[in-house]
Design brief:
single chain, Gyrase A, domain 2, 4 helices, 6 strands, 58% helix
Length: 186
């Protein structure tokens, strides 16, 4: 593996870490309704747990209400129970075949708790990025040790890896700040 390959795979892995972090952020609740909020909720479907999106159509009725339309008649009560039992603090109600999930307004205390959760997620993502930087630097050192690259190449590669790391950490900081602002908006 060459230094260029190490740089390319490291940057790709860092981009994947950012994508995973963005995905985690969508699951953290804000004041507005978001269908992605229910992605983590599992429903018992003939004995096996599956995501709600695989047994129902999840969409928005308005800015504060999510609608869930089961594809099978008997799934309504199971979906309702799964949403109620999740740790999202939601209370769904049935209207025939349609399940409405209103988003209750959040208290100031709950908003502050969620900003802490967001910061914690951000710190976890930064740690993942730094671990990838460390792995890349160790791979380059191994190439130098095996006499496949010079020490000057090592210095340049480490500087480039640091630039990429800084760029990704700055992006995480921006995402955290935007999500915190979104949560604190009343």
């Amino acid at each position: 593996m060459s230094i260029a390959d190490i740089k390319k795979t490291t940057e790709a892995k860092m981009d994947q870490s950012i994508a995973a972090f963005k995905n985690n952020l969508t699951k953290i609740r804000t004041g507005r309704a978001n269908p992605a909020l229910l992605d983590a909720v599992q429903v018992d479907y003939y004995g096996s747990p599956v995501p709600i999106s695989q047994v129902a159509n999840v969409s928005l009725l308005d800015s504060r209400t999510i609608s869930v339309q089961p594809w099978e008649k008997g799934m309504g009560p199971k979906i309702e129970k799964a949403i109620r039992d999740s740790d999202l603090g939601l209370n769904p109600s049935s209207m025939g075949e349609l399940i409405r999930v209103p988003m209750p307004p959040m208290s100031e205390e709950r908003r502050k708790e969620l900003t802490k959760v967001v910061r914690n997620e951000g710190e976890g993502a930064k740690i993942a990025i730094r671990n990838l930087r460390r792995d890349a630097n160790e791979s380059v050192k191994k190439l130098v040790k095996d006499k496949l690259a010079s020490e000057d190449d090592q210095k340049r590669a480490e500087a480039d890896t640091q630039k990429v790391t800084d760029k990704h950490i700055l992006e995480i900081d921006k995402l955290v700040a935007a999500k915190e602002q979104d949560i604190m908006a009343v």
